[in-house]
């Protein structure tokens, strides 16, 4: 008997044989068993997750001679012919190869005729999104008034491209990518049934490489069987897939944990002897780091059947969670930039060396602030560079104080009972000093808002004169002015009278100065960040970007 490929031989013939997709199966089974049938079903999902397989089983359910149910007999001629792909009333169309409107019209012209043998005429249209606009229109007409003896089973990898008018007339089922664990289980089942020997980790490797597709997994398994002359061994499966052994990856991470660069490069040398695919190696390293991060956060996620469980847990213990995050980020970007490296191995080595170089010192504080001083300094490793690059919190240096600025109470705080600033000195105060004075007053709310809008005029003979723009007349009221006068009196150490003249200010008022200062401080913070060597290093190494407007000076 000729060899039949596994994907074909082990194609599920009933819902019970399907691996995964329980959510879809439950809905279909309930519908079939309670006689609630729809005239059009749409199965969506990536390649190899079972869309057409499911549709064929459904066709059997609808046409089994034993009656409509979720468990077709599998013995009657209808069931057998559908399984063998030669049932006359199951019309399978691959829309990818048939998009012309005439073809679809031909197809749909026959819709009106009753089925030849079966209960229903079933149209299975795969890759439905590939139909042309005209073909969709022809299909829509049929879907609007479907003959009772017709069922449409549509499948697509790209439902976004299907017109809403079609979508709204279909019962839609979204098939998920299959988890690697489930694929590995199924592969094991198949191999057990086939009586072939295998090494457990090889199945996990194949399942991982299949990337959620059972069909891909089974054809990879076919290759692995051929490669290993009837046996599935890990070493051979790995070299077939061009993937390196997990042991190497564990060794590399052990070296990183021990900060042993020499040993690390030795491991890379041993790896090199296998001529691995370095991009694939980085992908596997990323997967391992992800598993490690999971193990650190949710230890119960490392179940008994996880390969090399002991080593994984030991490593999860040795590495700090932030190191794992950092390594992941470095590997991710390293993989992206690998094609730019003069040689893949050099690129791979640099990624590892970078992990070593950027590994945070254990003595470093857990969240170092970016240094405010813009002087050049050697880049220091930091614990969470990506975070800082997104939301830098520099301790920005405020703009230098005005040298001619008179001494204000802010710089020389003293008990309020003693005069702290001579009225004579204050009398010649400029706008900046007046602003500083306001800052030292215990003023809040509307009283402070009033002061901020007033320009300093002078202070003599117990009278403090201010100027207010007539546009701000609404800020004035006797109670507020009394509060302001009292606060100023306490500041200058004598009772004073407040006089506010209503005239447009001649110079800058405190409110404007406050705005200017804030803008200057922001600008200084931006410059500090832009000149900071740590930030520059993150930019170069991780492709980090400083998000505009995210820099806020802090005191
Ligand atoms: Zn049957």
Name the descriptors.
555 residues, alpha/beta, Rossmann fold, Helicase, Ruva Protein, domain 3, Zinc Finger, Delta Prime, domain 3, 4 domains, five-stranded parallel β-sheet, three-stranded mixed β-sheet, 24 helices, 10 strands, flat, binds zinc ion
Assess the beta-strand content as a share of residues: 5-15%
Number of strands: 10
CATH class wording of the largest domain: Alpha Beta
Kindly name the structural category. Answer: alpha/beta
Bound molecules: zinc ion
CATH topology of the largest domain: Rossmann fold
Q: Helical content, roughly?
A: 40-55%
What do the pLDDT scores average to?
A: 82
Strand order in space, largest sheet: 2-3-4-1-5
Using the 3D structure, state the CATH architecture of the largest domain: 3-Layer(aba) Sandwich
Major sheet, described briefly?
5 strands, parallel
The whole-angstrom Rg is 38 Å
User: Unreliable runs, pLDDT <50, ≥5 residues?
Assistant: 362-428
Q: Given the C-alpha coordinates, what overall shape results?
A: flat
Distance between the termini: 82 Å
Number of alpha- plus pi-helical segments: 24
Assign the CATH superfamily of the largest domain: P-loop containing nucleotide triphosphate hydrolases
| The number of domains | 4
């Amino acid at each position: 008997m000729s060899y039949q490929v596994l994907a074909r031989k082990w194609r599920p013939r009933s819902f019970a044989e399907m691996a995964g997709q329980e959510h879809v199966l439950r809905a279909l089974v309930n519908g079939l068993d309670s006689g609630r049938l729809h005239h059009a079903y749409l199965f969506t999902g990536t390649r190899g997750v079972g869309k057409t397989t499911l549709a064929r089983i459904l066709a059997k359910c609808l046409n089994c001679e034993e009656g409509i149910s979720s468990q077709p007999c599998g013995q009657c001629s209808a069931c057998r012919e559908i399984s063998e792909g030669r049932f006359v009333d199951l019309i399978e169309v691959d829309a990818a190869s048939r998009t012309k409107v005439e073809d679809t019209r031909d197809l749909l012209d026959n819709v009106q005729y009753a089925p030849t043998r079966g209960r229903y005429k079933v149209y299975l249209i795969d890759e439905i999104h590939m139909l042309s606009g005209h073909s969709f229109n022809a299909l829509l007409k049929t879907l609007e008034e479907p003959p009772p003896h017709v069922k449409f089973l549509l499948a697509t990898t790209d439902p976004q491209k299907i017109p809403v008018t079609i979508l709204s007339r279909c019962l839609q089922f979204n098939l998920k990518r299959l988890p690697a664990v489930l694929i590995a289980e199924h592969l094991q089942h198949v191999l057990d049934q086939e009586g072939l020997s295998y090494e457990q980790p090889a199945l996990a490797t194949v399942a991982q490489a299949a990337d959620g597709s059972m069909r891909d997994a089974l054809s990879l398994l076919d290759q692995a069987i051929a490669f290993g002359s009837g046996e599935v061994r890990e070493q051979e499966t790995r070299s077939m897939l061009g993937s390196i052994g997990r042991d190497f990856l564990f060794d590399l991470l052990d070296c990183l944990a021990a900060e042993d660069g020499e040993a690390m490069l030795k491991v890379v040398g041993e790896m090199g002897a296998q001529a691995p695919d370095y991009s694939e190696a980085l992908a596997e390293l990323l997967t391992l780091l992800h598993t490690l991060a999971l193990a650190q956060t949710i230890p119960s996620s490392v179940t008994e059947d996880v390969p090399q469980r002991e080593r994984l847990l030991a490593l999860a213990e040795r590495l700090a969670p932030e190191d794992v995050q950092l390594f992941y980020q470095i590997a991710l970007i390293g993989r992206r930039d690998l094609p730019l490296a003069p040689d893949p191995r050099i690129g791979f080595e640099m990624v590892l060396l970078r992990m070593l170089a950027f590994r945070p010192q254990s003595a470093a504080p857990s969240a170092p602030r970016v240094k405010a001083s813009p002087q050049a300094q050697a880049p220091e490793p930091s614990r969470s560079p990506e975070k800082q690059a997104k939301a830098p919190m520099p301790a920005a240096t405020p703009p230098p104080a005005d040298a001619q600025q008179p001494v204000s109470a802010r710089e020389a705080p003293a008990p309020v009972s003693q005069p702290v600033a001579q009225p004579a000195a204050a009398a010649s105060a400029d706008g900046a000093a007046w602003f500083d004075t306001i800052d030292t007053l215990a003023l809040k709310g509307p009283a402070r808002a009033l002061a901020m809008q007033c320009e300093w005029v002078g202070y003599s003979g117990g009278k403090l004169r201010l100027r207010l723009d007539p546009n701000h007349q609404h800020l004035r009221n006797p109670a507020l002015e009394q509060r302001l006068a009292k606060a100023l009196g306490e500041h200058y150490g004598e009772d004073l009278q407040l006089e506010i003249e209503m005239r447009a200010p001649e110079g800058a008022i405190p409110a404007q100065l406050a705005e200017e200062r804030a803008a200057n401080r922001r600008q200084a913070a931006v410059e500090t960040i832009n000149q900071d060597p740590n930030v520059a290093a993150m930019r170069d190494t991780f492709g980090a970007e400083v998000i505009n407007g995210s820099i806020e000076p802090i005191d």
